Amino acid sequence: MQLSSDSITNGQPIAATFAAGNAEGFAPNRNPQLAWHDVPAGTRSFALLCIDPDVPTVPETVGRQDCTVPRDQPRAHFAHWAMADIPADVRELAAGSCSDGFTVRGKTQPAGPAGSRQGLNDFTGWFAGNPDMSGQYLGYDGPYPPFNDERVHRYFFRVFALDVAQLALPDPFTAADVLRAMHGHVLAEASLHGTYTLNPVLA
User: Fold this and answer.
1) What domains can be seen in the chain, in order of their start residue?
2) Cβ contacts of residue 60 below 8 Å, gap of 6+?
3) Residue 2 CB: number of other CB atoms within 10 A?
4) 162 SS3 class
5) CA-based, 20 to 30 A from 35: which of 43, 53, 83, 84?
6) DSSP structure class, residue 99
7) Under DSSP, is residue 47 helix (H, G, I), strand (E, B) or coil?
8) What are phi and psi of 176, to 5 degrees?
9) How far is CA 3 from CA 6, 116, 162, 169, 202, in A?
10) Distance between CA atoms of 1 and 133, rounded to whole angstroms?
11) Is the peptide bond before 172 cis (omega within 30 degrees of 0)?
12) What is the DSSP string of 104-148?
């Protein structure tokens, strides 16, 4: 199976159009166009994840003018998108079809292919202690790395072909729930990644 995008060139910088944040604040936050090909026989649904593996693990260093987030600081995964039960006949998500703009407190009913389910992304936990921003962030919310991070962040879009039409998931569910539920059901996987930074020294 192959994954391609008219919006992202594999391994190259992601345009701010597809990010949640830019140097001025919130960005257009449109989901990128994605298309997958060479789907294996027996596919009954697809799952989609977008993961940033470069997120700082020391929150106190994030977003400060008086210091940077060291490049060698240990990093964690941050889910920007989790979608399950994408019907087997779907082969493409158009740019902006699932997200077009950033919604404070999160999108309550994000768009997606008929029959699909959108999970929580990790902005839910990131903003949990902020009374102005807290909420359930469902669907796609794109890159918004710290401006003081010494590391360029990578964003991996992964599509999985599954041998089940629906995954056994809680409501709401997370990317971790999808990974657990599809164990033993993956027929094929395809991925691509782009990069993004708000650090002017790295841009």
Assistant:
1) 2-196 (3.90.280.10)
2) none
3) 13
4) strand
5) 53
6) -
7) strand
8) -65, -40
9) 11, 19, 15, 25, 28
10) 38
11) yes
12) TT--SS---STT-EE-B-THHHHTTT-TTT-S--BS-------TT
Question: Given the DSSP bridges, would you call strands 21-22 and 75-87 parallel, antiparallel or unpaired?
Answer: unpaired
pLDDT of residue 122: 98
pTM of the predicted model as reported, rounded to 2 decimal places: 0.97
Instruction: Put residue 87 in one of left, alpha, beta given phi > 0 → left and psi -120 to 50 → alpha.
Output: beta
Spatial CB neighbours of 190, under 8 Å, sequence gap ≥ 6: 1, 2, 3, 36, 158, 159
Q: Which residues of 124-135 are buried (b: 16+ CB within 10 A; e: fewer)?
A: bebbeeeeeebb
Give residue 88's identity as a one-letter amino acid code: A
Scanning the structure block, which residue is given the tokens 């008929």? 114
Helix (H), strand (E) counts: the chain = 2, 10
Query: CB–CB of 114/176 below 8 Å?
Result: no
Confidence of residue 8 (pLDDT cuts 50, 70, 90): very high
User: At residue 39, what are phi and psi to the nearest 5 degrees?
Assistant: -75, 135
Amino acid identity of residue 4, one-letter, is S
- Please compute the mean of the pLDDT values over residues 58-83 and round it to a whole number: 96
- The confidence band for 203, taking pLDDT boundaries of 50, 70 and 90, is confident
CA distance 4 to 164: 23
